[in-house]
C-alpha cells in the first residue's frame, strides 16, 4: 500500500488555486518524493501525457481518450503512464494522492511571463531527472504534448540525450495550425494528432497502423493546457 506522500498534519495552508502553484511547498515536496523515493516499474513503454482539469486524472475524458489509444494496442503490463505538466511529474497510479488531486490552477490560463518561464525551467529539470532515474526501466518512451509542456519535454531530452518520441509530429501541427485562434495548434483531441499518437506506438512495435476514429461523445476535451 502506498505511503501517504504528505501527511495531513504536514500540509501547507497555502492555496492550491493560484498562479503561484508551481512554487507551492507541497507541490515541490510531492515532486521531490517522486524523483527521489518513488520506485518506478519496468515496462516496455513509458507514455507521458498531460495533466487534466478533472481529478483524479485517470477519470478525466482526456485520459480515457488516451487510454483507448494506448491500451487498444498495448497490454496493461506493457505500458506505464506518467502524467506531467502543471502537476510536475505524477506516475498515474498515484494520481489519487494529495496534492495531485487537489490543485485547481491551470497553466494554460497563465499569462504571466515569469511564471511561464519558471515553469518551463522547473518542469524540464524534473523531466530530465525522471528520464535519468528511469533510464533502464523502459524500452520506449512516447510523450503526447503541445504548448509549454512540449517545450519542457524537448529541453529534458536535450539535457539527457535519452530518446523520447514527442508527438504530435511537427508537420501535423503545422497542417492544423490556425493563427487566428488563441491556441494556434488546437487540441490534443483532434483526430490527426491522435493518429500520430497511435502510429508512434505501432511503429515501435513494428505492427500495422490502426486507424483512429474520434467519437463525438467520447472526445470531450479537458486537457489542462488546451481547455477550449
TrEMBL record:
Residues 32-169 form the DUF5591 domain. GO terms for biological process: tRNA processing. Keywords: tRNA processing. SUPFAM superfamilies: Uracil-DNA glycosylase-like. Coiled coil: none annotated. It comes from the Archaea. This is RNA-binding protein.
Amino acid at each position: 500500500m502506498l505511503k501517504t506522500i504528505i501527511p495531513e498534519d504536514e500540509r501547507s495552508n497555502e492555496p492550491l488555486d493560484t498562479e503561484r502553484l508551481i512554487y507551492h511547498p507541497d507541490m515541490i515536496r510531492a515532486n521531490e518524493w517522486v524523483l527521489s523515493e518513488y520506485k518506478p516499474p519496468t515496462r516496455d513503454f513509458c507514455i507521458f501525457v498531460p495533466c487534466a482539469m478533472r481529478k483524479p486524472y485517470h477519470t478525466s475524458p482526456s485520459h480515457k481518450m488516451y487510454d483507448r489509444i494506448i491500451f487498444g494496442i498495448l497490454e496493461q503490463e506493457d505500458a506505464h503512464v506518467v502524467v506531467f505538466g502543471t502537476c510536475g511529474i505524477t506516475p498515474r497510479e498515484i494520481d489519487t494522492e494529495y496534492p495531485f488531486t487537489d490543485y485547481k490552477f491551470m497553466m494554460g490560463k497563465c499569462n504571466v511571463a515569469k511564471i511561464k518561464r519558471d515553469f518551463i525551467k522547473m518542469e524540464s529539470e524534473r523531466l530530465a531527472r525522471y528520464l535519468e532515474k528511469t533510464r533502464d526501466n523502459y524500452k520506449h518512451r512516447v510523450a503526447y504534448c503541445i504548448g509549454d509542456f512540449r517545450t519542457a519535454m524537448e529541453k529534458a531530452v536535450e539535457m539527457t540525450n535519452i530518446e523520447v518520441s514527442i508527438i504530435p509530429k511537427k508537420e501535423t501541427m503545422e497542417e492544423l495550425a490556425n493563427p487566428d485562434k488563441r491556441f494556434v495548434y488546437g487540441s490534443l483531441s483532434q483526430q490527426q494528432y491522435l493518429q500520430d499518437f497511435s502510429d508512434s506506438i505501432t511503429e515501435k512495435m513494428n505492427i500495422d497502423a490502426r486507424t483512429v476514429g474520434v467519437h463525438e461523445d467520447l472526445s470531450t476535451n479537458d486537457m489542462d493546457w488546451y481547455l477550449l
